[in-house]
Amino acid sequence: MINIPAYLERIHFNHSVKPDIEALRGLQLAHLRSVPFENLDIALKRVIHINEESIWNKLVVNKRGGFCYELNGLFAWLLKQIGFEVTYLNARDYHEADDTFGIDFDHLVLMVRIPNQSTRWLMDVGWGDTFTQPLNIDNGEWQEQGLRAYRLESFREGYRLWQRGYGEKIERQYYFDLTPHQFPAEYEAACQYHQTSPQSIFTRNRIISRLTEDGRISLDNDRLIVTANGQREEFPVQNEIEFRMLLKKHFDITLSEETI
Prior knowledge:
alpha+beta
């Protein structure tokens, strides 16, 4: 049922795949451009399951997107099949409003190693608007990526991720430690929380977003947001009909009348 060629076709990756840094960089970029970050099922009151078969059917067979447990969960499977060494990590999003971090297993990120190499790479295709290439966990300096840069600062028992964005704005994104965890078992409770809790950002607004060649395109309840070469534009979405039209145009996703 699950196979590498079908996955690579889904992310439009037609280069050779072997466990090296070139493939790691290419796979992350291709994934971010092809498989959107989205929470549409939560808004539709559909239960999200994070076992391998359910994620495969949603992301690859049905060509949908998902949130971190789905996106990074399936991406980890692909990387392991290719031959990379993958560790599931517990990350917690930073909440600027009250200067706190989220719950345990708030976010799933991956630590990846190339066989017979010591470098530890942070990988993430499931957070939305963040780094687009692997980050060297042991490099404490700013790591440049196009118009942005990222830094992993030692913090508590792990690291916190900083982004220097457009206009030199600096913000914290999340904290993670390096303790290995089991997926999906240890992430099930947090996944349930984010589908049902009024405190979760995912139950308060629907969002779909993907990387583009020159920036990012995002659609939420009432806005289409287009970022190109560091410049951001917002366009109002007038009604549900327009929302569905934009969803099809920019993400090739159709929601049936019944699900609406």
